[in-house]
């Protein structure tokens, strides 16, 4: 029995497997990147930007839901706060460059996220969802009542301005590549977070919280950090969206939006990196296609049906099911 | 200042809405001992465990660890001080590999657990230590197996290895042999014996043959209070103990573990 040799062999095997997984990930990411770079020449850039903004929103939500196990029902608050803050600043302070407005919107959403987290993190399961919903409703009513948001009418004519004071964002292609760059940066950040030492702790908390506590982890702090990062990225998505559409509306703050991001994440595949991106693409497309045709009044019931179908029959979502299929049939 | 007792409780009380689950319990766990906590179902053994590790907050009383009052500390802080518990239901991280299970425990002391910007590859330096720990419980070949696929006995072995990764000074084991076949029980006895070298162990155990083989000292709980305390011979000769605990169980082999009440389940 040459145990030591055996042990190193196993370790090498593990490292080798990790490397091959990393290579696969790199390949998938590379192909997607090429597609996204070429996309605006085939499709309408504003529509693509809508998809990217919602994809970022869903990626942010999934960090909390899919990787930490916390179901927030109040993420619309961060999307809207990012959007309104950026919109307000860019409209009223013409000296601000676009990216400064976006950064400010993200920061305000981050702070709001911290407040939400501190108030809700000790609750579990459905109670956590309810507290986040209640807080998001407070934020909604604040936006309804405030003058600067334009209430029911929303905030119109937000100037896109110039990136770094140089690149004109009124050009849709410029705007698209800016949104794409931000999206890719955030996606890679989340990918990094999930595989980081911190990500390992999140995983363990999600799988067995009591055990994580007994191993010396102060789980509330880890959850708060995950919540704040998630809120920050959701706020960033909202800020970008308001610049893209030059519009911030109450829709983004409505609880409906908090539900929609859950739908996107579940349909795409929670707890996978690509799932929310695929889910957002799918939902935005379905909504658009239906609204063009004779079924335009049926968008919500049809999405509801898709939701029910996913939960009943395709638990792991589109990406999850594809991964299962590949694993089963290709090795 | 030499403190002979690693762990001590003073008049520990836990009340649940008028029901006293733990009543005035004074425990003294001597350094280096394997100390068993036994008693019939509902005696409050698991509740005591939960109080010691602060998964429950004591209503009254004090907990001293190495002479220091740790009553106000939180669970996670107690674990980091070197008092680490296992659970009645096997507590593992099901969708992580066996190696990752252990690595998460080792990570507690690395100071990088909030580093969300660092590559996961920085954890690979812990792999060698993980393999040693896995090897010690005979799980080296399962290092890369997802835990949910391991057999029950192996999960419990993994749990023990994970607990040992914390280098605890005192190990709190909640029914380590519960639900096991006799072969696995022998393995666990062996593992606990190995693990107890240089450490103190407090265990809840129903299987009296395990208790007689392993334990230096035994505390018998009944209805939330300490009935008696002593070594196996003393305790098993005590007529009171025979009455409440062993009376109907004959030799006591396997004990009442199969009829474990859910009321005592881990949190």
Radius of gyration of chain B: 19 Å
Q: Which term fits the overall shape of chain A?
A: globular
Strand content of chain A: under 5%
Low-confidence stretches of chain B: 248-267
Query: Can you count the helices of chain B?
Result: 9
**Biggest interface, chains and residue tallies:** A-B, 37 and 53 residues
Termini of chain A, distance in Å? 31 Å
Estimate the global geometry of chain B from the Cα principal axes.
Answer: globular
Give the tally of structural domains of chain B: 2
Commentary on this structure:
The complex is a heterodimer of chains A (331) and B (267). Chain A has 13 helices and four strands. The longest helix of chain A has 36 residues, at 3-38. With 331 residues, chain A is an all-alpha fold. Chain A has a domain at 50-260. In chain A, a hairpin with a 3-residue loop joins strand 2 (162-163) and strand 3. A six-stranded mixed sheet of chain B has the order 7-8-9-4-10-11, with helices on both faces. In chain B, strands 1, 2, 3, 5 and 6 form a five-stranded antiparallel sheet that branches. Chain B is globular, with a radius of gyration of 19 Å. Chain B has 267 residues and is an alpha/beta fold. Chain B has helices spanning 45-52, 75-80, 98-107, 127-136, 152-165, 182-195, 208-214, 232-237, 239-246, and strands at residues 5-16, 19-25, 28-30, 34-38, 60-65, 68-69, 83-85, 170-174, 200-204, 217-222, 225-230.
Outline:
With 331 residues, chain A is mainly α. Chain A contains 13 helices and 4 strands. Chain A has a domain at 50-260.
Tags for this model:
heterodimer; A: 331 residues; mainly alpha; 13 helices; 4 strands; globular; B: 267 residues; alpha/beta; 2 domains; five-stranded antiparallel sheet; disordered C terminus
């Amino acid at each position: 029995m040459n145990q030591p040799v055996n042990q190193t062999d196993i370790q090498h095997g593990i490292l080798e497997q990790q490397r091959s997984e990393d290579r696969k990930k790199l390949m998938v990411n590379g192909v997607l990147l090429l597609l996204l770079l070429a996309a605006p020449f085939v499709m309408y850039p504003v529509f693509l930007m809508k998809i990217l903004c919602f994809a970022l929103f869903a990626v942010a939500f999934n960090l909390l839901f899919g990787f930490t196990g916390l179901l927030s029902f109040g993420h619309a608050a961060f999307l809207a706060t990012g959007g309104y803050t950026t919109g307000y600043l860019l409209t009223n302070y013409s000296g601000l460059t676009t990216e400064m407005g976006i950064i400010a919107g993200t920061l305000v959403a981050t702070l709001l996220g911290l407040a939400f987290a501190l108030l809700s993190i000790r609750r579990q399961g459905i109670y956590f969802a309810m507290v986040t919903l209640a807080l998001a409703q407070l934020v909604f009513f604040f936006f309804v009542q405030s003058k600067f948001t334009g209430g029911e009418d929303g905030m119109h004519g937000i100037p896109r301005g110039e990136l770094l004071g140089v690149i004109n964002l009124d050009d849709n292609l410029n705007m698209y590549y800016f949104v794409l760059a931000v999206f890719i940066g955030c996606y890679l950040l989340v990918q990094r977070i999930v595989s980081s030492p911190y990500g390992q702790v999140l995983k363990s908390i999600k799988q067995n919280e009591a055990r994580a506590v007994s191993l010396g982890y102060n789980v509330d702090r880890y959850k708060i950090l995950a919540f704040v990062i998630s809120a920050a990225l959701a706020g960033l998505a909202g800020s970008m969206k308001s610049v893209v559409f030059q519009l911030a509306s109450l829709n983004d703050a409505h609880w409906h939006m908090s539900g929609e991001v859950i739908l996107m994440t579940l349909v795409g595949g929670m707890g996978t990196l690509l799932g929310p991106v695929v889910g957002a693409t799918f939902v935005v497309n379905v909504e658009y296609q239906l609204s063009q045709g004779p079924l335009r009044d049926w968008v919500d019931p049809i999405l509801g049906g898709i939701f029910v179908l996913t939960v009943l029959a395709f638990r792991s979502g589109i990406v999850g099911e594809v991964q299962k299929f590949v694993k089963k049939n290709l090795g | 200042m030499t403190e002979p007792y690693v762990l001590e409780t003073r008049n520990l009380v836990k009340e649940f809405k008028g029901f006293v689950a733990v009543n005035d319990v004074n425990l003294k766990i001597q350094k280096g001992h394997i100390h068993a906590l036994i008693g019939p179902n509902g005696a409050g053994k698991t509740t005591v465990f939960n109080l010691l590790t602060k998964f429950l907050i004591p209503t009254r009383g004090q907990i001293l660890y190495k002479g220091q009052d740790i009553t106000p500390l939180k669970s996670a802080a107690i674990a980091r001080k070197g008092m680490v518990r296992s659970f009645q239901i096997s507590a593992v991280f099901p969708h992580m590999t066996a190696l990752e299970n252990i690595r998460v425990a080792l990570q507690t002391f690395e100071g990088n657990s909030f580093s969300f910007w660092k590559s996961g590859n920085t954890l690979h330096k812990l792999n060698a230590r993980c393999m040693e720990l896995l090897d010690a419980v005979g799980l080296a070949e399962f290092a890369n197996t997802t835990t949910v696929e391991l057999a029950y006995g192996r999960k419990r072995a993994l749990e023990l290895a994970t607990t040992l990764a914390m280098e605890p000074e005192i190990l709190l084991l909640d029914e380590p042999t519960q639900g096991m076949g006799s072969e696995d029980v022998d393995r666990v006895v062996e593992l606990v014996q190995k693990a107890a070298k240089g450490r103190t162990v407090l265990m809840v155990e129903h299987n009296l043959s395990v208790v007689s083989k392993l334990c230096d000292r035994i505390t018998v709980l009944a209805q939330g209070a300490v009935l008696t305390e002593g070594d196996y011979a003393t305790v098993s000769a005590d007529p009171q103990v025979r009455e409440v605990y062993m009376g109907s169980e004959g030799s006591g082999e396997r004990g009442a573990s199969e009829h474990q009440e859910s009321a005592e389940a881990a949190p």
